[in-house]
Amino acid sequence: MPDVRDGLRDGLRAALEGAGVVGAPVELAIERPRDPSHGEWSSNVALVAAKAARRPPRELAEEIVARLGAEPPPHVVAVEAAGPGFVNFRLAPSWLHEVLAEVIAAGVDAYARSDAGAGRTVSVEFVSANPTGPLHAGHGRWAAYGDSLCRLLEHCGYRVTREFYVNDRGRQIDLFAASLAARRRGAEPPEDGYHGEYVAEWAAEMPDGADARQWGIERARRDQADTLAAMNVAFDLYTSESELVARGAMGEVLHELGSRAVVYEHDGAQWLRTGEFGDSADRVLVKSDSEPTYFLPDIAYHHEKSSRNELVIDVLGADHHGYVPRMRAALAALGHGDEDYEALVGQNVTLRRGGVEVRLSKRAGNMVLVSELLDEVGPDVTRLVYLLQSIDTTQTIDIDVVSAQSAENPVYYLQYAHARIHSLGRQAEARGVQRAPLDEVDLTVLVHERELDVLRVLAGLPDTVAAAMRARAPHQVAAWARELAAAFHRFWHDCPILRDDVREDLRQARLWLVEATRIGLAVALAILGVSAPERL
RNA sequence: GCCCUCGUAGCUCAGUGGAUAGAGCAUCGGUCUCCUAAACCGUGUGCGCAGGUUCGAUUCCUGCCGGGGGCACCA
């Protein structure tokens, strides 16, 4: 896809050479200045090349400007040296008309795509909630985040497998089964068991003679799968811990580690030398009672994932951050490359209702389920709310605000833009207005600042998507969508389209501008996994 | 005690090694005989504190203070 910066970069390189700066390893950044009065694009060439050139940056900038002025790159109407030595470009609106044509040509399927991933395989594990209960609002964050991250990676040319690991054996399961069985016979669950209301509800559903463990796991998994489906999240691969163990993966990986001489015995237990691979201590693989710790099957699973993927990503909650060094160490001990494993640790979610914080606990009463959020506000709002914020900060979801049918709800701003676009389509149809083919439309009539602002935002989507992918930060796409919505609302307010007093050529160009906006919004929403209503 | 993470406007949050740090909400005041006013326009003494690296730090590093999370032969 053509990029206006290519021409600017070529021009800058030539000017730099003309100025006698040769061979300097210059990181040539061309960015949008924060202050629009500094032009459309700005480069720091002179600042970074000054040292190699042994000249003051401002002076170097002046010379570059003089040389560029003599032979300006495409669309450039003025080049200026500014500040400590920036080179600023002023461009004709034609560069934005080109952007509009590109967006339309690419369409929803192709705009802002890249092949940065080059078809590399990546496994992304997320949610992986224990099959001991429904998904709570905290899990919802990882469901929304993990799935959108996958969409981002796919958009950038990775081959993604969405993975869910089911811890269906071990102590938690024992407790869950015991709790279920106890409720079934009308007794209290064990002290350290599961006391949530759902346990009693599920126990009431349980058929006579059913095995509480097996039935309970299935019940929990079905509940979680329903919730995930309602959130528009679909996993490619569920891996059951007990099946993994049953097929001998645990013994195999233990043998593999043993053959690499990184396992030793101490106090009757078998330890892995994770301390030698960057962890703060060695870890137990097999306890002195011969029972494996949870860690061993986990290693087996990660070994397997690493063997069938070029990159392995785990999405984890903050409470699991301590787990990262040991898994990283175990994978290193198994000979996997350090860069091929990524653990993304996000902060927790808290809920607020009626002005008070609701703690997310598996203990009864105040647990807020994803399914409740879904019931209250629907899947789109639920996902969008999760994705509006970086996972690096603890998120407080105010249920009253999120469920409010008012402007206070941050989701509506975005949805309203979408609804307006579709409303325009309905209006146009009702009035018999049709878009002429793009190559018959004169886009150069788009010179209103509101129109150009929309195009400027649209021009930024490919960069935004690429950056969001690299940063593993889908919320950046959400932020971009809000920017686009804002630009669109302002355009809408100032630039009528269907009104009788609008010239036909301008109307046509604006209709295409709206179509490009629709495409940009659709691309962003697809990455977020959100669909927007066609009317509010 | 050790480790991770966050600290930006009244609130909820974006943001960048650069030139005057943004958006929504809230406040106050404007804008519909006109494609959706859930919109638009105006209204703001904010990067926790102190050092360091850099031509330039809110951004990177160190320390401190404050919030959250974690430190098992539990998972």
Can you put this structure into words, describing what you see?
It is a single chain. By secondary structure, the protein is α/β, with parallel strands linked by helices. It is built from 19 helices and 15 strands. Helix 5 (137-155) links the parallel strand 5 (121-125) and strand 6 (159-166). The protein is globular, with a radius of gyration of 28 Å. The two termini are 35 Å apart. The model has no long low-confidence stretch (mean pLDDT 91). The structure holds one RNA strand of 75 nucleotides.
Spell out the blueprint of helices and strands:
Layout: H1 4-18, E1 30-31, E2 41-43, H2 45-53, H3 57-70, E3 76-82, E4 86-91, H4 94-110, E5 121-125, H5 137-155, E6 159-166, H6 171-184, H7 197-205, H8 212-230, E7 237-240, H9 241-246, H10 249-259, E8 263-266, E9 269-272, E10 283-286, H11 295-308, E11 311-317, H12 324-333, E12 341-346, E13 349-353, E14 356-358, H13 370-387, E15 395-398, H14 399-402, H15 410-430, H16 449-459, H17 461-470, H18 475-494, H19 504-528
Parallel strand pairs: 5-6, 5-11, 6-7, 11-12, 13-15
Antiparallel strand pairs: 1-2, 2-4, 3-4, 8-9, 9-10, 13-14
The chain binds one RNA strand of 75 nucleotides through α2, α6, β9, β10 and α15.
